[in-house]
TrEMBL record:
UniProt entry tagged with the keyword Glycoprotein: no
Enzyme Commission (EC) number: 4.1.1.48
Family stated for the protein in its record: Belongs to the TrpC family.
Protein name, as recorded: Indole-3-glycerol phosphate synthase
Classification lineage: Bacteria, Pseudomonadati, Bacteroidota, Flavobacteriia, Flavobacteriales
Reaction catalyzed: 1-(2-carboxyphenylamino)-1-deoxy-D-ribulose 5-phosphate + H(+) = (1S,2R)-1-C-(indol-3-yl)glycerol 3-phosphate + CO2 + H2O
NCBIfam families cross-referenced by the UniProt entry: PRK00278.2-4 (NF001377)
Pfam families: IGPS (PF00218)
Transmembrane regions listed in the UniProt entry: none
Alphabetized SUPFAM superfamilies for the sequence: Ribulose-phoshate binding barrel
One GO BP: L-tryptophan biosynthetic process
Length: 260
């Protein structure tokens, strides 16, 4: 089993347990359920910098990155830095995140929030909405075409943006469909952890114009962004590069300042 298989196996158990404990009706009763969502796709198309800054405590590839800071201070720092949106990892077992992190980020800032999760069931999309997300991530490597279609429809009914993540041509072909707002190319192979910006560069020409292009993972310098912009990318998801510092907000501020 590769790491992605392990994450999905754990996620199936987790979702089944949660469904048995917290009914959908309870999630739908959340005061956040009917709030107006903010479109990340729109923010990215209007931005010249396009940074989506991530809250990431640890990861399977890097182990501990930063366990010390509160989500509140990281979120405030990212907002002040001028990030277009914030990605909040909510997986507990492999990333040390939680839905409470999402809730805290929502209470702290007014920018689009991405629930960064391994979504395999519409229940998790309803959870995302109830905890204040504006965007959900769908990972093509763990979903078939029909699942992508159904999960996208659920997200759209809840007025959430959809960021569809691919890593190769085959995943891209099965993912191109109405309702997807942003196509994210993950530079990290989630099965081997190998990272290469060439993945974003080579897939860019295959992504139809109507999708906002986002490059994800392994981005650590301005030069990389400038290059990716030449390939049509409008969004850049950055986690470790900010989170590994003592002050992710400050680090994002310096980064974004140099992009302007
Ligand atoms: O980051 C990992 O090790 C990882 C392993 C397995 C599945 C997903 C993983 N990461 C999720 C992400 O896609 C990244 O957190 C995100 O793109 C930011 O990447 P980075 O800037 O390299 O921290």
């Amino acid at each position: 089993m590769n790491i992605l298989d392990k994450i999905v196996a754990a996620k199936q158990k987790e979702v089944a347990l949660k469904k048995s404990l917290i009914p959908v009706s309870q999630l739908e009763a959340s005061v956040l359920f009917t709030r107006d969502t903010i479109s990340l796709a729109r923010k990215l198309t209007q931005s010249t910098t396009g940074i989506i800054a991530e809250h990431k405590r640890r990861s399977p590839s890097k182990s501990v990155i930063n366990q010390k800071l509160s989500v509140h201070e990281v979120a405030l720092g990212y907002e002040k830095a001028g990030a277009c949106g914030m990605s909040v990892l909510t997986d507990g077992k492999y990333f040390g995140g939680s839905l409470d992190d999402l809730l805290l980020a929502r209470a702290s800032v007014n920018m689009p929030l991405l629930r960064k999760e391994f979504i395999i069931d519409e229940y998790q999309i309803i959870e995302a909405r109830a905890y204040g997300a504006d965007v959900i991530l769908l990972i093509a490597a763990i979903l078939n075409k029909n699942q992508i279609k159904e999960l996208t429809q659920t997200a759209k009914k809840l007025r959430l943006d959809v960021l569809l993540e691919v890593h190769n041509e085959e995943e891209l072909h099965k993912s191109i469909m109405p309702g997807i707002d942003m196509l994210g190319v993950n530079n990290r192979n989630l099965k081997t952890f190998e990272v290469s910006l060439e993945t974003s560069k080579s897939l860019s020409k295959l992504i139809p114009e109507e999708f906002v292009k986002v490059s994800e993972s392994g981005i650590s310098n301005i030069e990389a962004i400038k290059q990716l912009q030449q390939y049509g990318y409008k969004g850049f998801l950055i986690g470790e590069n900010f989170m590994k510092t003592g002050n992710p907000g400050e680090s994002a501020t310096e980064f974004i300042k140099r992009l302007r």
